What we know:
8-stranded parallel β-barrel, single chain
Amino acid sequence: MSNPVIPSFDLAPGIPFGAADAFPVVTGPCVIEGEDWLVEHALSLKAMGERLGIPLIFKSSFDKANRSSLTSFRGPGLTDGLKALATVKAETGMPLLTDVHSPGQCEKVAEVVDVLQVPAFLCRQTDLVVAAAETGKPVLIKKGQFMAPQDMTRIVDKARSAGNDKVGVTERGASFGYHNLVVDMRGFDILRDAGIAVLYDVTHSLQLPGAGVKESGGDRRFARSLTLAAIAAGAAGLYLEVHPDPDQARCDSATQLPTAMAEDVLIAALKVRAAVSA
């Protein structure tokens, strides 16, 4: 049986997604912790991408609107956050991705970033999905922890109804009882058979949601093994949050990867990618 054809599009300028020889990587810190800090970290990640010879899309959030606790750090907000991201683009030339949380944010965010991301908890919000797609920018929709892979085809249809075919899905695991996630590797085949390209979100699938005192817990030890399994299962790219000092991170400190670990994971990932593509 022949492999299904997945519509290919540029996830960011010059970075194809869905094609057999394409393998985009989205990476950056979970949340913006300061403009100068963000630029410094982005330059470090750009250097990593150049060493590995892979295209990187820089990601960071201006607002983490779904934190576990009211007192958890959320980020600088829309105005200051977009300013920091614009500075990253100016200083590094890297394309940008960030989250949108309401339809009213989409147009303003699209003026700065190259890819709009719909968060997992909001993936069923029709107005948000359609508004993101109406900007004309590529849209990545995170599969909710409560969604079956098949259910995401209808979410993608919502986005495509706006006349935007540049739509992909990000797999980040499914709830398994309380405070745990598992990644069903069958999902990559299911979505590929539906003509949808899928990124694998390494770090968020390592979460133990709500298991921390004031935030989600997690276990980054499994980053490498899950990444390699996802690539073998057909992931068309990777998404991983990287922080220069994860233990001091103001969000997702248990799951963000230190830069050296992220590079090691990507080196192994490229080897598996080459093997399965041969």
